[in-house]
Every structure is written in C-alpha cells, then in structure tokens.
Amino acid sequence: MPAVSKGDGMRGLAVFISDIRNCKSKEAEVKRINKELANIRSKFKGDKSLDGYSKRKYVCKLLFIFLLGHDIDFGHMEAVNLLSSNKYTEKQIGYLFISVLVNSNSDLIRLINNAIKNDLSSRYPVFMKLALHCIANVGSREMAEAFVQEIPRILVAGDTMDSVKQSAALCLLRLHRTSPDLVTMGELTSRVVHLLNDQHLGVVTAATSLIIAMAQKNPEELKVSIPLAVGRLGRIVIPAASDLQDYAYYFVPAPWLSVKLLRLLQCYPPPEDDSVRSRLAECLESILNKAQEPPKSKKVQHSNAKYAVLFEAISLIIHYDSDPGLLVRACNQLGQFLQHRETNLRYLALESMCTLASSEFSHEAVKTHIETVISALKTERDVSVRQRAVDLLYAMCDRSNAKQIVAELLDYLETADYSIREEIVLKVAVIAEKYAVDYAWYVDTILNLIRIAGDHVSEEVWYRVIQIVISREEVQGYAAKTVFEALQAPACHENLVKVGGYILGEFGNLIAGDPRSSPLVQFNLLHSKFHLCSVPTRALLLSTYIKFINLFPEIKVTIQDVLRSSSQIRNSDVELQQRAVEYLRLSCVANTDVLATVLEEMPPFLERESSILSKLKKRKGPGLLPEQEDSPKDKNTGVNGTVESASLSPLSADLLGLSSTSSQSSSSSAPRGSLLVDIFADNQSPVPEAAAAPVATENFSKFVCKNSGVLFENQMLQIGLKSEFRQNLGRLHVFYGNKTSMQFLDFSPSVVCHDVNVHAKSVDPVVNGGAQLQQMFNIECISDFQEAPSLNIQFRYGGTLQNIGFKLPVTLNKFFQPTEMSSQEFFQRWKQLSIPQQEVQKIFKAKNPMDMDVTKAKIAGFGVALLDQVDPNPSNFVGAGIIHTKTTQVGCLMRLEPNTQAQMYRLTLRTSRDSVSQQLCELLSDQF
Amino acid sequence: MQFMLLFSRQGKLRLQKWYVPLSDKEKKKITRELVQTVLARKPKMCCFLEWRDLKIVYKRYASLYFCCAIEDQDNELITLEIIHRYVELLDKYFGSVCELDIIFNFEKAYFILDEFLLGGEAQETSKKNVLKAIEQADLLQEASVCLHAGFPPSVLSESFLCSLDIAGVFRRVKLD
C-alpha cells in the first residue's frame, strides 16, 4: 500500500509535530506546546464554530501533546462532539481521544454513552466496532453498567458480522476483568461456548479469550467447553497438512488459537470422558512430535510460534501432572532446549523445568540435567537466564544433591550479580537447613554465606543459624570453634561479628579449655572488632560480655574495666550507655548464683516455619519453592520412618523437628519430633510401613484427636488403624502387620467392651511372614461412656502363645458433630449452661510446646468446630459441637485459654450433661 | 497482556497502550523504570525478563523497542510473535515502516493496534483481515478528507515527511 493513501492529511498536525521534534531543549518544547495549547483553547472558545476538520486536527494535537507526557485538561467536549458525528474520520479521532484520556466527568460520560449506544445499534459494522473498541479501551464501571446487557446479544446474534463479533467478545472480556460482578451471560453462556465451533478462526480466537475468563470464574458452568476445545485443538494440530490459510503463521497452524485453547484446558482437571481424553492425548503427542521434526522454515518466527504451542502444551501436561510418560517426554524436550543456541529458549526451558521439578513423576528426570544447569550458571551471559538457573537448581534440590547444589551456589555467589545475591543467600540458607544431615555442614554453609556475601545476608538468616545452634546441643561446640576461627580473619563482616558474639556468649565455655581460645583470647578477639561495628552490634556484644562474666569469672575484672570505661558508660547512644551501666552494676551486686540464673543459657527456640522460608516466599510466589518434599502425595517417604514423615509437613521445614538423632537431642526438642509425627500422620496412608514410628507401646491418647496411624508396635507385630465416625456410628479398620518372616498361627483378636456396641468381622487365623491382615469393626455408641473397648490378640509364634492387649481408640469425642455458630449464639448458649455441674474446668501445665496452629489442629481433630472471632481474646480457642449417641444428643461448648508465659492452659467445658463435660475435659486436657 | 509500550533507543515513548486501569502517575513511573531497564540490556540477551510481578517481553526493531508486559501464566514466545505480527502490520500498511511513520501517524498506529489487539488479547491474527479492516476505514476517510480539507491526500507523501525530518532520524524498521 503506497504511503500516499494514508488517508487524512492533517497538514497542521504534521507541521506541529515536526516543530516539536526540532525543539533543541525541553524548555523550547514546553514553550511551543504552551503556545499551541493557547491557540487551541482560543479556537475552542471562539464564537466562530469550528468545522469538523479543524476540530479533528486540534483534538489530534491535544492527543499528541498528552502522549508526549503533558497534562491535558480540556478538549473532552470537542472530542465527544467528534465521536457523535456521523462522519467516520471524526468519530474515529473522537473515540481515540476519549479512549486515551478518560475523564470521569459524569455529564460527559452520559454523552459518550449515548453516542456509543447509537453506534452499537448502527447499521454500519465499522461504527459498531469503533464503539466496542472504545468500551474495551476504557472499560469503566459506568460503561459496564450501561452495556453489559447489550454486548452479549451482539456477540451471539446470527446476523452480526464476524469482525464485530470478535470485538464484542474481547470487549466483554475487558468488562469481565474490570467489573466481574456485572458481567453475566446467563442463558447465553452455552451459545458463547459454542463459538469454539465457529467457522471463522478469528471469531474463535477472540471468543476463546473470553471463554477462558468465564471458565476461571464459573468452572462448573463452562465445563461443556472442554470437549469443544479439544475438538478444535485436534482439527488444528493433528492433520498432516492443514490449510488454515491466513491463520497459519510462518507454517505454524493458528498458533495463537492453539495457545489459548491449551490455556482454557488448564482451567480444568484431565477430561473425564475417555474419547475426549484420548483425543487430547493425541493432540499433545502430535505437538511434542512436531517439535522433533525438521523446521519448515529457517525464520525465527517459525520456531517461536511452534515452540510457543509446545511450551503451552507442556504447561498443560504439568498442570495435569498425571501422565508420567508425557511428563518425562516434556522433560527431555526441555532438556534439549537447555543447550539450544537461542537464549530465549534456554530461558524458557529453565523456567518450565522449575515447575516440572515439583512433579513427583518428573523430579528425577529433571535432576539428570543438573550438570547442564550448573554450567548455565557459569556461562550464561544474561543475568536473567542465570537467575532462572538458580531457581531451577533450587527447585531440583533434594537430599541427594543438596551438598553439590549448595557448593555450586556458594561458588557462584562469589561472582554473582548484586541484584540476585540476596535471593541466592536465602535459597542457600533454606536448602542448607532443609537438607542438612549434619549440622557442622549447615553451620559451615551459613558462615560461608556471611563471608562471601555478608551484605546480602538478611537478619532472618543469621537469626536462624543462632536458633538452630541453640536448639541442637551436638553442634554447639563445633559452632563455637568455627565462629572463633572465622573471627580470626582480619576483616570480617559485621554479620559474622553478630553471630560470633552471640554464639561465643552462649557456648564460648565449650572451647575455653584450649589455651588458643581461652576466655581472655575470646574476649580480646571480640573486643577488637567492637569499635568497627554499628550500634546494634555493639549492644549485642555488650550482652556477650556480661554472659562472659557468668561463663568465665576469671576475666570478670577485665570486662568490668571495659564496661566502666568512659566510652561505654558515657556513650552518647542511650541503649549502649544503659547496657553498660546496668551490666556493670549487675556484675558487681549479684552473687554467682544470681548471675547464673539471670544469664542462663538460652532455652531452645520454639518456632515452626523457618523465617527465611517465609521471607523467600514473600519475595517470590510459592510456586518457585521445591514443594515436592512437602506435598502429602509424595510416596517416596516410607524408608526413613519418622524423619521423612516429619519432613512431609510444611510446618516442620525447619531443622528443629527433623532430625534422625532426635532421640539423643535435648529433652525439650524430643517430644516435638514425635508431636509432629502425631499431627501429620493423618497425611499418611494407614499402611503401617508408611508410618513406621518408633513406638514400642500403645498410643491410645494420641488417637483422641486423630483417626489414623500406628496403634501398637513391637518386634513382631505392628498394628495400624484407620477409623471413621458418623453421628453415633463408627467404623474401624485395623491392620495387623507381621514383621517377622514366620507365620502367626491361630491368630484371633477379640474385643471386650461394656459401654459401646462393637461388632468385629472375622479374620483369617493365619498371618504369613511379612504380610498384613485387615480387620473391620463396626461401632455403635449407645449413650455417653468412659471406658474404651479393649482388644485382645492371641496367636502362636514359633510354638509359643503370644498375648497382646490394648485399648481401641474409641472415645466419646469421636461422636462429635461440629457446629458452627455466631458469637452471639455461642454466648447465649454458654449462659444457658450455667448450672455448676454442667461446667468442668481444668488448669494444667503444657506438656508440649504451645503452638497456635498445632492447638488448632488438635481441637479440630477432637471434633468440635473451631469458632473464629468469638472469643474477644484472639489467642483463646473456642469450639462447639454435638455428641451423638443412640439415646440422646448432647450439645457441648468449649474454651481453651493458653497462657504462654506460664506455659499453662485453662480448659473449660460446658455441656448439658455433667458426665459428658467431665469425660471430654479429661480427654482433651491430656492432649496439650 | 497488561500494557504495550513502543519507545526509541533514546528512550522517547512513541506509543503506549494500557489494558489495565492505572493512574497517569503510575503509568509514567512504570514507563520510566521499564524504558531504563530495557535500554540497559545488551543486544544478545534474551527477550524476557521478570519485572515486579510481571513478565516483560520485548524486541528491538531498528531504532524502536516494542515492549509488552504479560502476566505470570501468559506465554512469552507467543507474545514475542504478537509483537512481530504488529510490526508486520505496520510495515505492510506504511510500506516499509520507520519510526517517523509512527511519530507522524501515531493515530494510525493506534487504530491498527486496536484492530489487532483488544483488551490485551489477540482479536484478529490474520494479517489480511486486519489490513482489510484498516483499508475500509481509510476509504471512508479518503472520501471525507477530500471533501473537508479540500486538498488531495497525496500532499502528505513520504518525501514530505522526510523533508520535515530535520534531525535526520530516519530509520526503517527492519523485519528479520
């Protein structure tokens, strides 16, 4: 098309633009613009009415000035005049101005809407399109309100031109995004969905975008789109030589539409219908196959379009996460891209592999590319690609390769771009903690982080290493020795001084036996750094000094001298001065016993999720974290028993609860380990080997708040349990696992019970070596009860008669039905149950760490509904439920008030029956 | 797509299209930051980058940078080809397009973009169909321009534009 036919020459506009371009300075430009604005203003205000051409020219000039970045506060009225004109050129410029410079002037909006309304009902499709484009560009709520009824009708009407339909579809999409509450297709939904079958591929392309948005909002209603989308996709990607004419792009058939259809399918799980599913599998296979075929064109557009479809197909495969074959193929394909000469493809392959790494089916396949990814880290010239490589290393990290990955990341950190250092530091810290097998390695890693990138080590990281050292006795001596050595460096980072100061203050005594690190040497070493540090670090060091006075009475005088020096005691900083004065005084007046109490070693920290992890999550969406270890569907965990089952829970992502040596660790962390297993064992299948907890005795009280797990275990036999309750009925599945290689003969379990009806299904009297036997019990609760049924098992093992007996975890609370109620209802009922016998209260000491989430989980497991925002004190827990028995139903209200300072709880139960209150209180108070 | 920006190697904004509601202040801030970020990148670097919580897809054609911001789940490669198709459309329409065409006929650049992308999504991906729509509109314009302005459209020829280009920045957008 020759340039001459560009249509409307507005000479004045061209001259003005070229004037602006010739301005030598910003000032000259502003001057020229102001001159023009004054001119336009006077033209608009002048009494001589302007003709359409002049109006158009001036409005265009205003638009140009606005797009240069200047403010425009007039001309809207003239623009509205233009768009109300019935000349196309004027209309077009008027709409453009309004689209770019939206003004919320209500009078104006009314006029604009009127003009749009006229154009929407115009017989010229070009006018309709202009109006639709304007709505789509502005997308304001007022417009949505005015036209949300009209546009869907235009979209599905039989006589609407294809190009208008396309505009209408995307116009609706925009309104759908800005005012989702207003846009409802109602009975037109099905007709919109059937646009997927439209003959005009342009209509299908536009409509698919709209359908995706609708499916995200109303997945159920839009489900019918699945077979249509698959059918359409099939007709594009499967034929050997499809001729889509204009919709082929560099020999790739309809790439935009293919990508959109694949996106639509990602709103849903795999299709249920067999024929649809197999057709989709064909499509995906075909897309993967095409990636391997020789290119039909050397143009980069050809490969980009082809691979755009491929990447979207891989996204769908990852989204389904169900077909190991396709996942592994996808992974191999991406593996090829990792070494592609196109930087873009390497980037995308790294990005896509991050999500593949989180699938259990492809995690191993991703891991095989570790060397390529590491070399990308070293050789890529583009920092955004290196960033992706870091992400992928993080995502593919697990116990088997953690050491290698940490070593590589530390190595890279030395030369890494400043923009991504902090994130690498966080990632290394998380990996080091999560997969630490020995803590010496962990401590070394963190100290390395501080040494290499001290400025980028955030507080969370060094807080964390201290928490861990304090909580893990076995690493304390090593940590003290290591920080002492690290502090020897002439120039060490202030963060190291902080960590060193804190750790030596706590555990310096562990290395004081060595004359090279005697108390005085330690003190002098730390104090030599003192004057180079900032105020907060100095404050920390002063605390270290007073701790030293307690640890090493022999250097008390030296330290007191330092504290007494005028630079400390008269320091201009209030915090430092106060510490110096108070510590000095404390060291003088207190006897050794008092000092030892005040300055006692820090107790282990009670905390769940690593604060580093939460920081990293805040920086990045959760999608980039290696979730595969946390996901309950991970099936590769049974081998290590407790350790692995603890690591399944997201809460135990810290080291504190996740050690194979938990039995030897300090007393306060030991119960934590088992506690974690308790709560999260529900995620496990009840098959005993999956939860091979080291329980040697019965675990009755653990089952009060949960319904599955290992009930009993000794050298011969492991008994697992899975139970479900509904109203006053229950069903128990008991799994007997023979751990020996010999048969159990005459195997006969029998139940003794008084208060509940138990009906046991009979079982085979022989349990083969290594085999498992399952037995089902049906239970009926007649009235409230205290005594749980007991199970006695007799069998012969190698000629001797074995006898095992224990209680089945059938407790009154199992027959709870949770009841939701408002605050008002709750307190009304609470008051109704005011007879003294109805209330039972117990105050007791916490046996386990007081963790809000754990408590919540336990109360929910106990069976009552946990009521939020009922208790005025947010740290209290309030619950309600109804106990179902055959004869009666008993309403129960409970309240638990933790006192973290005193490590005590107060539990109050009110029910309509005193025996129930009593029994529930007994059961629940035992849980914390 | 959340927005599309066209800017020159000198950092001058030539076209901006926003598909999400933002205040003018925010738009200016985003433009400033992004222009800086993209201009600082070297030629052989990859065309994608993470920026805030968006993905930026950009490509340079001669002296012009075309830059799109897409959301996390959007497809980078297909966006790259959206840019290319838009450049093809401009090229076909202006007949070997250059930065000046877009400066002097900015309204046309917007009209073509609206035919191709609406609400941030591809409306019509067939080159033929988009150009047909623009041609139709131009025919309507021709008629009215000649009537109203009173001079033939051929006055605004390419050579006329060149004569206005004192600064000499006259580079053709290269299609590769």
Automatic annotation (TrEMBL), chain A:
One of its GO terms (biological process) is clathrin-dependent endocytosis. Its main location: membrane. Pfam families: Adaptin_N, Alpha_adaptin_C, Alpha_adaptinC2. A 1,2-diacyl-sn-glycero-3-phospho-(1D-myo-inositol-3,4,5-trisphosphate) binds at R11, G12, K43, Y53, K57, Y58, V59, C60, K61. Keywords: Cell membrane, Coated pit, Endocytosis, Membrane, Protein transport, Transport. SMART domains: Alpha_adaptinC2 (SM00809). GO terms for cellular component: AP-2 adaptor complex. It comes from the Eukaryota. Residues 618-643 are annotated as: Disordered. Transmembrane segments: none annotated. It is a peripheral membrane protein. InterPro entries: Adaptor_Complx_Large_Subunit, AP2_complex_asu, ARM-like, ARM-type_fold, Clathrin/coatomer_adapt-like_N, Clathrin_a-adaptin_app_sub_C, Clathrin_a/b/g-adaptin_app_Ig, Clathrin_app_Ig-like_sf. Residues 701-809 form the Clathrin adaptor alpha/beta/gamma-adaptin appendage Ig-like subdomain domain. GO terms for molecular function: clathrin adaptor activity. Belongs to the adaptor complexes large subunit family. Adaptor protein complex 2 (AP-2) is a heterotetramer composed of two large adaptins (alpha-type subunit AP2A1 or AP2A2 and beta-type subunit AP2B1), a medium adaptin (mu-type subunit AP2M1) and a small adaptin (sigma-type subunit AP2S1). Component of the adaptor protein complex 2 (AP-2). Adaptor protein complexes function in protein transport via transport vesicles in different membrane traffic pathways. Adaptor protein complexes are vesicle coat components and appear to be involved in cargo selection and vesicle formation. AP-2 is involved in clathrin-dependent endocytosis in which cargo proteins are incorporated into vesicles surrounded by clathrin (clathrin-coated vesicles, CCVs) which are destined for fusion with the early endosome. This is AP-2 complex subunit alpha. It comes from Paramormyrops kingsleyae.
UniProtKB/TrEMBL annotation, chain B:
Subunit of clathrin-associated adaptor protein complex 1 that plays a role in protein sorting in the late-Golgi/trans-Golgi network (TGN) and/or endosomes. The AP complexes mediate both the recruitment of clathrin to membranes and the recognition of sorting signals within the cytosolic tails of transmembrane cargo molecules. Signal peptide: none annotated. GO terms for biological process: intracellular protein transport. Adaptor protein complex 1 (AP-1) is a heterotetramer composed of two large adaptins (gamma-type subunit AP1G1 and beta-type subunit AP1B1), a medium adaptin (mu-type subunit AP1M1 or AP1M2) and a small adaptin (sigma-type subunit AP1S1 or AP1S2 or AP1S3). Binds to MUC1. It is found in: Cytoplasmic vesicle membrane; Golgi apparatus; Membrane, Clathrin-coated pit. Coiled coil: none annotated. This is AP complex subunit sigma. Keywords: Coated pit, Cytoplasmic vesicle, Golgi apparatus, Membrane, Protein transport, Transport. Residues 1-140 form the AP complex mu/sigma subunit domain. GO terms for cellular component: AP-1 adaptor complex; clathrin-coated pit. It is a peripheral membrane protein. Belongs to the adaptor complexes small subunit family. One of its GO terms (molecular function) is clathrin adaptor activity.
